[in-house]
């Protein structure tokens, strides 16, 4: 039997903007949380082969398995070619408009079986392990469904429906596919009878939804397939109930196999989400931006409230971190974590990143007076916060857990916050405020130019007074702090490339942190280097590197957080919003050339 790829992380992802599932290239559901992204898992084989639980299809006499998406949709098609016949399984989570009353997006996963030739036979492994497999899961048979429920600890349950014989499905008996069939797993007990026809209707309506959504995505001269798949991934990571955007769909997939850099990414980082919103707006998906800014205004009710670096997907502010010690972890990489202690950290860069998005919102949209006043209040509060905090050290973009420093990227983003605030004030005709903030903008700029530059390295370094380099400094041009033509930026790009590039991939940094020296490539940093090279005039090198990087995706064009320097194996949480937003941004740059920011905005509108 052959499968699609040996890149590692050979998973497809399906979802409906409320939850999502990872499905292996052999058609096994290895990760599913219901009813929400951050709920406890039903299937978590990806985190423990023995007790995580899975939902598998095991064909008899299989010769080949292949996998693809059904066009520009988030419907995954796994094709099983066997000696007794061929069949396809369409995996999806329903999502479509419901009579102008919002979206029908239930906490359901549907597996739709379609025979192609012959009479293929297979077994089903339905092995739910509720609540991360902490205790035994009990399975009970009812007239038209199977119920799985916990026996100890927190109560949880789910329901399985099928057009095939339920007892044969659950007891792993051999099934023969002679007509179209379905299996549905739901967090809720269904009120209506579940039939093949009903599942097929949901499949067609879900396909229509995704094709319509894709059809609204801006097209470019090149890289449209790459941009589209990344856009579809980013849409999947948006949570419809609040407007939050997840960093990734998983927890505890390690940055390096066997190490302890394992984090829960099923939350909304202000930085990651704001950057996603900027990219998606350029692609023409304005509703996502509106929903995210509503999420921001909802979680910042008080004028003096500190902005956290991250929140739960429903705006939760306390994300207590615990470990699930009964799980062995991805390829035995312990610990498995739930929650994320980084929510307590102070990171000064979030002000600038959020202000950049708010400025874009004012720049592109006609905004109601009430909404403008809300955003103007947030703008003034963030200026106040930056004025109080920009001289203080923080934990930086990489969330160093021990010790504060004066990180260059954080200082640059403090400058961005004031720069965008000045521009917002000018746009809103609040000229006295703009004039008041301009000196602060210049003070921060001069401070960076003086203290972040290392004469010996001929580069801006990771933090004030040190000689370590950091890939995040490549974003100085992206945020408008320095133009690509500036000799200091050109020198910095080349210095960072010399020190941090290895085998065509990028370290975030090489100096030791809380867990030693990083040993894998952080995917987004390699795309940052591509952009920086392009902007300093090395266009051929940038294009060549970008095309090479794209070849490191998995079999479906998906990326995780990290890449192994030697094997190119995907590592870290998956699929990673940060990686895919960088792909889109870089692809647009290489496709369209060095347009001004205004030209890019106008182009994305038209």
Automatic annotation (TrEMBL):
<dbReference type="Pfam" id="PF19291">
    <property type="entry name" value="TREH_N"/>
</dbReference>
<feature type="domain" description="Trehalase-like N-terminal">
    <location>
        <begin position="13"/>
        <end position="151"/>
    </location>
</feature>
<dbReference type="InterPro" id="IPR008928">
    <property type="entry name" value="6-hairpin_glycosidase_sf"/>
</dbReference>
<dbReference type="GO" id="GO:0004553">
    <property type="term" value="F:hydrolase activity, hydrolyzing O-glycosyl compounds"/>
</dbReference>
<keyword id="KW-0378">Hydrolase</keyword>
<feature type="domain" description="GH15-like">
    <location>
        <begin position="222"/>
        <end position="586"/>
    </location>
</feature>
<protein>
    <submittedName>
        <fullName>Glycoside hydrolase family 15 protein</fullName>
    </submittedName>
</protein>
<dbReference type="InterPro" id="IPR012341">
    <property type="entry name" value="6hp_glycosidase-like_sf"/>
</dbReference>
<dbReference type="InterPro" id="IPR011613">
    <property type="entry name" value="GH15-like"/>
</dbReference>
<dbReference type="Pfam" id="PF00723">
    <property type="entry name" value="Glyco_hydro_15"/>
</dbReference>
<dbReference type="GO" id="GO:0005975">
    <property type="term" value="P:carbohydrate metabolic process"/>
</dbReference>
<dbReference type="InterPro" id="IPR045582">
    <property type="entry name" value="Trehalase-like_N"/>
</dbReference>
């Amino acid at each position: 039997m052959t499968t699609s790829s040996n890149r590692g992380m050979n998973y497809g992802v399906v979802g409906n903007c409320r939850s999502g599932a990872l499905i292996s290239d052999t058609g096994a559901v290895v990760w599913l949380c219901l009813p929400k992204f951050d709920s406890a898992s039903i299937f978590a084989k990806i985190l423990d082969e023995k007790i995580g639980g899975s939902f598998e299809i095991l064909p008899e006499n299989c010769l080949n398995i292949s996998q693809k998406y059904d066009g520009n949709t988030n419907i995954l098609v796994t094709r099983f070619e066997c000696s007794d016949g061929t069949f396809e399984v369409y995996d999806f989570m329903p999502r479509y408009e419901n009579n102008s009353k919002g979206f029908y997006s239930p906490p359901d996963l549907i597996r739709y079986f379609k025979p192609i030739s012959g009479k293929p036979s297979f077994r089903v492994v339905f092995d739910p392990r509720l609540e991360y497999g902490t205790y035994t899961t009990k399975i009970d048979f009812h007239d038209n469904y199977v119920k799985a429920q916990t026996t100890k600890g927190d109560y949880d349950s789910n329901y399985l429906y099928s057009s095939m014989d339920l007892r044969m499905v659950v007891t792993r008996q051999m099934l023969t596919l002679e007509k179209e069939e379905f299996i549905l797993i739901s967090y809720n007990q269904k009120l209506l009878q579940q039939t093949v026809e009903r599942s097929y209707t949901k499949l067609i309506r879900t396909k229509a939804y995704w094709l319509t959504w894709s059809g609204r995505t801006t097209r470019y001269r090149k890289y449209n397939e790459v941009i589209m798949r990344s856009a579809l991934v980013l849409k999947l990571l948006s949570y419809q109930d609040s407007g939050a955007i997840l960093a990734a769909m998983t927890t505890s997939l390690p940055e390096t196999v066997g190490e302890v850099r394992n984090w829960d990414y099923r939350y909304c980082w202000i930085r990651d989400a704001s950057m996603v919103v900027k990219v998606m707006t350029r692609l023409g998906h304005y509703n996502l931006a509106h929903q995210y800014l509503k999420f921001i205004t909802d979680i910042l009710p008080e004028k003096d409230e500190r902005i956290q670096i991250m929140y739960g997907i429903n705006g939760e502010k306390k994300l207590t971190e615990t470990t699930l010690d009964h799980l062995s972890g991805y390829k035995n990489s312990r610990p498995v974590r739930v929650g994320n202690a980084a929510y307590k950290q102070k990171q000064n860069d979030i002000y600038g990143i959020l202000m950049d998005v708010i400025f874009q919102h004012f720049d592109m949209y006609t905004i109601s007076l009430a909404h403008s006043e809300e955003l103007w209040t947030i703008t003034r509060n963030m200026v106040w916060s930056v004025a109080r905090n920009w001289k203080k050290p923080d934990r930086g973009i990489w969330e160093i857990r021990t010790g504060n420093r004066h990180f260059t990227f954080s200082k640059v983003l403090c400058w961005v916050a004031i720069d965008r605030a000045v521009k917002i004030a000018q746009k809103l005709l609040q000229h006295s405020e703009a004039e008041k903030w301009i000196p602060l903008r210049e003070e921060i700029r001069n401070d960076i130019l003086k203290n972040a530059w290392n004469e010996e390295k001929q580069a801006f370094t990771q933090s004030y007074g040190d000689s370590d380099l950091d890939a995040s400094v490549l974003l100085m041009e992206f945020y408008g702090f320095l133009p690509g033509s500036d000799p200091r930026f050109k020198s910095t790009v080349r210095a960072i490339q010399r020190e941090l590039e290895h085998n065509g991939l990028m370290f975030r940094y090489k100096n030791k942190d809380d867990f030693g020296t990083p040993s894998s490539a952080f995917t987004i940093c390699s795309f940052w280097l591509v952009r920086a090279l392009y902007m300093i005039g090395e266009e051929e090198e940038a294009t060549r590197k970008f095309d090479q990087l794209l070849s490191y995706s998995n079999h479906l064009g998906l990326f995780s957080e990290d890449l192994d320097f030697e094997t190119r194996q995907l590592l870290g949480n998956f699929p990673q919003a940060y990686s895919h937003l960088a792909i889109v941004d870089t692809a647009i740059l290489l496709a369209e050339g060095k347009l001004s920011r205004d030209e890019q905005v106008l182009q994305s509108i038209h």
